[in-house]
Amino acid sequence: MDGKARIDSEKITINLGFVDLGHIDLLVGDGFYANRSDFIRTAIRSHLERHGEVARKAIVRKQLDLGISLYGKADLEAVRASGDMLDIRVLGLATIASDVSPELARATIRSLSVLGALHASAPVKAALADRMT
């Protein structure tokens, strides 16, 4: 690696009933899955695949950028210089770099909608709170 942390997942916490958890442990114990996380990831991917066409249509309809989007200081300064503002719509991970000030973010980001995860400093998130949907 080049010294930068690779970001390819987000940790979540879920609550499961004891019976569901027991079923998962049974399948893990019988070797169908490596561990609970493996079972849950597999189940989620299977469900997402089942609804894949609906999701693809929604991505197009809502004009979402799919994947990882990074907005750095130079990018936003170029937007400000052009006199334009961004409407950011991401399905995945949107990152506003640590070198972006809250003032620059407010001057260049008109709206922000992220389905997935938003990585930005607390001051930048606070500055954009009224623009997040």
How would you explain this protein's 3D organization?
By secondary structure, the protein is α/β, with parallel strands linked by helices. It folds into two domains: 1-50; 62-131, no CATH class. It has helices at 18-29, 36-50, 52-61, 73-82, 102-108, 122-127; strands at residues 65-71, 86-96, 109-119. A three-stranded parallel sheet has the order 1-2-3, covered by helices on one side. Helix 4 crosses helix 5. The longest helix has 15 residues, at 36-50. The protein is elongated, with a radius of gyration of 19 Å.
Provide a brief overview of the structure.
By secondary structure, the chain is of the alpha/beta class. The chain has helices spanning 18-29, 36-50, 52-61, 73-82, 102-108, 122-127, and strands spanning 65-71, 86-96, 109-119. It is 45% helix and 22% strand.
